[in-house]
# Entry
Amino acid sequence: MIGTDSPVLAVLCGDQHPPDMDSIERSATVRYTRADGLAEALRGADVLFVYDFLSTAVPDAWPAADRLRWVHIASAGVDPVMFPELRASDVVLTNSRGVFDSSIAEYVLGVVLAFAKDFAGSLRLQQECRWRHRETERIGGRTALVVGTGPIGRAIARLLRAAGMRVAGVGRRARDDDPDFGTVYPSERLTEHLPGADYVVAVAPLTEQTKGMFDSAAFAAMRPSARFVNVGRGELVVTEDLVAALRAGELAGAALDVFDTEPLPQDSPLWTMPNVLVSPHMSGDFVGWRNALVAVFADNFQRWRGGQPLRNVVDKTLGYVPSGR
# Structure
């Protein structure tokens, strides 16, 4: 039975409750809520678990948070909860860094191979019952520029290197001796290094500095044979500029898992472009991912209860977890 001194945990979960919460329910008063009940659930709550990590309900409900000490979001990206009041508060913010690294890296390798081996073309021809021999590309020796050097970007770099690709990174700080990327270029010089890449992979966190970083100038800098892959945030890209660049032949294709508007509107031209692969924000979602997200929170919850340092503490001035934290 939960004692009177048990912490109060609000869980923003939408239509689906998180699994494997039994151990947490035994040591806390848990209030499960949808967005419309979040304000009420936050009154007197010590902790907020944003399980519905796509929800934008937290800023509006924030004034009701009269005792909150810690917010955890069930994703690597924290932009849905990076509003000014939370930034300015003493509330600790943590994320679920590490859960999706390998699965997103596998997705990126998969779409790189799909482009190089023209799997989409083979499927179309199969559906038309047409036998048409073609030559395809190799990925060995091709260059990938990974924009974003956090854990997901590093997992992508390691897997692409293992497949024989040459990889470089783009991040906040330039360096020449990175163990995963080799060379990391500074973000402010992105357009200088885009022309050398066969594949450009966007996995940067969404911040004021990265929002819209892939615009008409960036796409114009890419070689016409390059492919663009976005597994970061939809708002990293100016969608109209991407569509225009694809139509103008400024790049050869795009694989997009995230969009500035989700679900992707049915009238978006991206749906029907022959050189575009669309997936519904699922690059990281492997079988069992929900359980893995709860496991990360449960570990941190026990740490918080025991007065131990939390894992994955977000630097609220940067908008992500710095390396080594």
